[in-house]
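This part of the workshop introduces the protein records we will be handling. A record pairs a protein's sequence with a compact description of its fold. Comparing a sequence with its tokens is the quickest way to learn the format. To make this concrete, we reproduce a full record directly below:
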Amino acid sequence: MNRTENRTGRACVVQVDETGCTWLKSSVSGPVTTGQSCVEFASKTDGDVSVRTSRDRDGGRLHFSEASWAMFITDVKGL
């Protein structure tokens, strides 16, 4: 597993996992090295999105369809 801290725009790459998913977290969460916890997300090749906590990267994950994730993002931006 490759753990990096590349900041590009709004997201920070924190890991590329064994399945090839690139896990990202918001750049406003602070650098990976500070130990701050946050949600991280990865877009899968089928368009679906997985979400996990940075406190337990190997723990449970939530999975969303591409359409559900798009609706969530639209709703959050509307707040």
Remarks:
- Residues 66-77 form the longest helix (12 residues).
- Residues 30 and 56 are 17 Å apart (CA to CA).
- The first strand starts at residue 6 and ends at 8.
